[in-house]
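hey can u check if this looks right to u? its 102 residues, i copy pasted from the old doc so theres a chance i mangled smth
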Amino acid sequence: MHTVYAAADPLEAEILRGYLAEHGIAAEVFGAGLWGARGELPADAWPRLVIADGAQVEAARELLRRYEHRRHAAATWVCVCGERAPVHFEICWACGAERPAH
């Protein structure tokens, strides 16, 4: 068994399991049942995508990298002037203010 992704929550894990299945990669979600106990257990409670076929690990990781890239490419930040800018912009396109550090 090869862990290829630690999901943010059980819903994301299931969505990504389906995404991999659409590309011919069988994956299982492990740890989703621990989600409700996170913070109370001294253990890793993040749901994980696991693949049995070692030959598909790199293909799965590449698909998941594409998913991450698209997810972050759509991210934005809000400037002090109220305009939204893509997360990869360091300076607001509307007023020239620098992106706040958070």
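Strands lie at 2-6, 28-30, 48-51, 76-78, 84-86.
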